[in-house]
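Hi U.,

Before I forget, here's the chain from the pilot set. I'm dumping it here mostly so it's searchable later in email.
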Amino acid sequence: MLSLLAVLPILSTVSAHSALWHPSMYGFNVTNAPDGRDNRPVVPLKFMDFNTWWMHGHMDHPPNKGDVLELPAGQTVTTEIACTKAATSYFASGQGGDVRDGNNVCPDSRMAAFHTNGISGLGGCGLAIAYKSDIHAVKPDDFAIFSVNHVCVWNRFTDFQVPAKLPACPDGKCICSFFGSTRQIQEGKRVMYMNPFDCNVTNATASVPIPPPQVPRYCPVDKTNCTVGAKQPFYWLQNEGNNMFNDFYDPPTYTENYGFKDGAQNDLWDSIRAPSSSSSPTPSPTSVAQTLSTSSVSTSQASATSAAISVAATSTSANTTDPSDSYLDVGIDPMNNLELNSTSSALNNTDTSLSGNTTQSTRPTSPVQHLLADGSSAHTIRACHARPVSGSSSGKRKRSNTLRKRVAKDKRTGWMWWAY
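Structure:
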């Protein structure tokens, strides 16, 4: 028989996890799973089969009818996060009596209970919403993160800001869930949290639905690589059902490293294309290339930066030129790396390479197509031949920020190319 001294460390370790507590949550009063496993809401999820971790295995333990967490559109909802229900306002239905200690998440616990070495090591938390009223009908890609708190789980009273454009729920109820992760560097502290609850958006004035959420992309430096618009929660570290495949020592976090700003996620609708107006004139190109006169070639050209080159063409023949052929833009990246890359879709589609010797990139390029590619061969552009400006061979391209200007005439076609 284990002594009390032997049991206490086990209890302390088990309680050193947290959950968002509210009567609207599924599993509000759950202690053990049917298989005898500790399945309290605070128990973290890792290395589990889908049916075990999904909704924390609490779908068959719904809240009482009418217990719903209200989400006022454009305002803030204050939640309680704690390592035990006894440390919250709902201690009466918990075990251990009232152990509340102000804003302390884990009373009488060391900082390790927060799964961090300090506030800078927190991984943040997020609230997600699915516009379905039946929890059994909700699928992983239905959830969209609508609010994030970067310093969660540091305070028992944790605020989540609600987007003003969040639409109303069908039949007065949605399914929401609390999600969290940690980036504690100590081994064994990698965990995922998921606590579902019934919710309802109040004071809703907007009606535009949230677009289908996409998987968040890692973008700590290049923010143009962040997922645009609605983002899914992280499903990670499980035996199946993951949408994130980071290894054990690289947990995804609800921070700006993955495109999650602190507060309301007002960018939920950013992936929706704005309707185009048929009366709007066609915008002029932003390239520094200028259309040259068909009667003479100007010797002065607009200056260009090292981040782009432009090529303009004009015909010296007497034939009338198609207006669409009056100029053509060609670009390279800031490091003079000549590649054929397509422009990035506004809907987060990964760029598709147009040349066999280029690599895919999720970093959006300029709207100008990169048409020059291989320094070893010429590339036909509208039945003409344009060669890379750099004279170096493939694989040894000169990286220079010096403005260069060349002109070459194709005797067969009569076209003259000016390159910067």
